[in-house]
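Lab notebook, bench 4. The sequencing result for the construct came back, and we need a structural model before the next group meeting so we can plan mutations. Quick request posted to the team channel:

Model the 3D structure of this chain.
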Amino acid sequence: MPSSPTHPAPERRPDASALRPEPAERARTVATRAAATVCAPGVEGGRLLAHTVTRAGQVLLVVPADGDIASAVDKAPDQDLSALLMVSDHAPVPLRRPVRAQLWLSGWATPVRPEDQRAALLAFAETRPTEVLLDVGRTARLLRLDLAEVVLGEGGKGVDVSPQEFAAARPDLLAAVEADHLRHLAGAHADVVELLTARVPAEVVGPAGVVRPLGLDRFGFRLRVERPFGHTDVRVPFARPLTCAGQLGAAVGRLLCTARAARRS
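Done. Here's the predicted structure in token form:
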């Protein structure tokens, strides 16, 4: 009987395209951020009390009942107002350029019908529970934004995402806990940042580069290399994408073990 091989098979490195989220997933993640404003013809930077994208992919807005956007909707033909929702994704740790990404959602804003309002409020609360929902029907109004175009701006370029892909995608599974993890990493674990930096090619960091944590998602860490003139964003991926948030600790542990072993070799 032939003997079994004594050497393990070489590790299969995942394809580079599999080490980062697809644009639609990234767009849905950015959409979860609270920093947003809404614009419409004749209204720039209209006040927005809250926004969300429901699990079904519907974009909902809460605006002041006496505000410019609500007034513009009332004056629009059939209460169907061309509008643009702009969402900004800010890094939770100090950076020279803190905006990591921006999302532009354009379409038509219209009031949610009274008979649909209860279901819409429940769907809103499921993805973004907020006290302003209690004001809907009194000092606030609930609008839906029927999407025509989705554009994700990240890394100095814009990427078009179809409204259908945007609706079908889901936010990154670490989106709700990312900020706390990054703040803890930046404030209490300089040694971990150093190990992650060791996974970045030396020529990318350079002699004057300062590496800071930029992001964390199910695919791994993102780091920003800040230099006197400009910066570069890089990924340090996990061995494989996470499928649930509970896998994060083990994935980070394996990544750091690999970094330590590489540094000793």
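Confidence is low (pLDDT under 50) at residues 1-15.
Will bring this to the meeting.
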